[in-house]
Amino acid sequence: MRGDLGFRVGTGLFGLVLIAIVVAIGFELTRESMPTIQKFGLNFWRTQTWDPVAGDFGALPFIWGTIYSSILALLLAAPIALGIAIFTAELCPEPIQRPLIFLTELLASIPSIVYGLWGIFVLVPAVRALEEWAPPVLRQLPLFSGPRLGVGMLSAGLILAIMVIPFTSSVAREVLKSVPAAQREGAYALGATRFEAIRAALFYARTGIVGAVMLGFGRALGETMAVTMVIGNQPTVTASIFAPQYTMAAVIANEFTEAADPLHLSALVEIGLVLFAMTLIVNVLSRLLIWSMAPGAQGPGVDAAAPAKLAAT
Amino acid sequence: MILTPKIEVAGLNFYYGAHRVLEDINLRIQPNQVTALIGPSGCGKSTFIRSLNRMNDIVPGARVEGSICIDKQDIYAPSVDVVNLRRRVGMVFQKSNPFPKSIFDNVAYGLRINGMTSSREELRGRVEASLKAAALWDEVRDRLQTSALALSGGQQQRLCIARALAIEPEIVLMDEPASALDPIATQKIEELIYQLKSRYTIVIVTHNMQQAARVSDVTAFFWLGRLVECDRTNKLFTAPKEKLTEDYITGRFG
Ligand SMILES: Nc1ncnc2c1ncn2[C@@H]1O[C@H](COP(=O)(O)OP(=O)(O)O)[C@@H](O)[C@H]1O
Ligand SMILES: [Mg+2]
């Protein structure tokens, strides 16, 4: 009994320490970004000029680029990730299931910078070829205008999608596997085909699957290195998927070391603060959705992400 | 009176991989009767009942030898359409398993996937008739659009029965349908079974011998994967032919 109590107090303390760390990060980021918060207020997030030399900071292009690239990644990744999850959980023959799962986890553990290098050498030329091939009529549309560089929003969305697929698919797979067999059997017993039984399972798992997709979205929001390498790093707000743009994480990574001016530093920290809040909210929400469905589903979690985090710093 | 059996099982062996679970089962099940399967847990009752609608097809490594005929047609013949078979042979599970949908949509599910109704009115009519047949209509008529998960355990199980009845099966299989329910809910299910047998052939697994005695016309006693004895229920419980049956029903073991 005493040992048990000690154990619970101990683990409870660790839990509190974790919460304290999160609060401390939030506090510190807020404190460090006071200069820009006081100087620009909400205009910081409404204006587009980013001029460190003149001391004028508007962060709209970064939040735009971050959300745009993450949504693009989500749209590209979700169908594929769900397809992979359905295949591994429901359709593939027993013997290849484990190797397939292993492969997915392996993809998730490749450092971000490696994806970035692959993006520069393979993806960007391919996107450039696509841009050159695109007919002029198409390129007059706002969605496809802009220079033919290869680097830009499309490359960023694609690389994010590729990086997010292993996470989303592996969480979605665990969620699907947690659907009670009785649900599928119930459908089969009413004359369901295999396809209809899978649909019944997907319906049962819908909350958790939304969580899995959101978890991927959360990862895309904060992803730094690979995006920095392929998005072109131009602070502009444009709808074009071919245009070079910028993200919050990328601007922090690029400018933090050379930000000598306190206001510039504060601007970057404020961007970090909002990115922190966004990823925190998205992650908490998606975890809650997943836990409500499948308490065990983690995704290729913490260890797999560690090398990526290291590479990013 | 000589009846043609609804289900005729001959020389049935059942394997999970290399493990033989059922051994040379021979059994005839008559139409419009309730046949109860009793026996200690692990003796293969579920496996047997699940082989009657080929539910075991989805278990990897499961294998069947021998034959099971329904209306003289071998249900394991290659030409048999399993989906169609399961429509004719409904099943109610041990633990109620409603879909996380509304009460209405649960009952309508089978009708919809099998394309069995042509208009909304017809669908509504069939759902209502099924809920009435499952003695649930009066309790849920005002809340058909609320979630099935909000129902009590006994109501959920009757909903699952309504769902199975909606697609008008000829045979209804029930695998310990009341084992998770309280005595009052159990009694409702038993009354329901009694009412349903005029329209359906019912096979019910139960570990509860009083229940078998109350609801069934015929009882089959399984023991370690073998069918020891099958007879009219009142005979099997009062004057069993086999020593093993007698030991079991008098509670001399498990
Ligand atoms: N899916 C399965 N895979 C392997 N063995 C199984 C499976 N289902 C049941 N069995 C085994 O088959 C035997 C009979 O089980 P079951 O038919 O569930 O018995 P009962 O319903 O009478 O309790 C048991 O030994 C059980 O362990
Ligand atoms: Mg059983």
Overview of this structure, please?
The complex is a heterodimer of chains A (313) and B (254). Chain A is mainly alpha-helical and 313 residues long. Chain A has one domain: MetI-like fold. Chain A has helices spanning 2-32, 34-40, 60-91, 94-108, 112-133, 136-139, 153-177, 181-189, 194-204, 206-222, 225-230, 248-255, 262-293, 302-312, and strands spanning 50-51, 56-57. Chain A has a two-stranded antiparallel sheet with strand order 1-2. In chain A, a hairpin with a 4-residue loop joins strand 1 and strand 2 (56-57). In chain A, helix 3 (60-91) packs across helix 12 and helix 5 (112-133) crosses helix 7. Chain B has 254 residues and is α/β, with parallel strands linked by helices. In chain B, helix 3 (103-113) crosses helix 4. Chain B is built from 10 helices and 10 strands. Chain B has helices spanning 45-51, 82-88, 103-113, 120-133, 137-140, 153-166, 183-196, 209-215, 233-238, 243-249; strands spanning 7-16, 19-29, 34-38, 62-70, 73-74, 89-92, 171-175, 201-205, 218-223, 226-232. In chain B, a hairpin with a 2-residue loop joins strand 1 and strand 2 (19-29). The mean pLDDT of chain B is 93. The two termini of chain B are 36 Å apart. At the A-B interface, helix 8 and helix 9 of A face helix 2, helix 3 and helix 6 of B. The complex binds adenosine-5'-diphosphate and magnesium ion (MG). The site of adenosine-5'-diphosphate has 11 residues of chain B, from helix 1. Adenosine-5'-diphosphate binds at residues 16, 21, 39, 41-47, 59 of chain B.
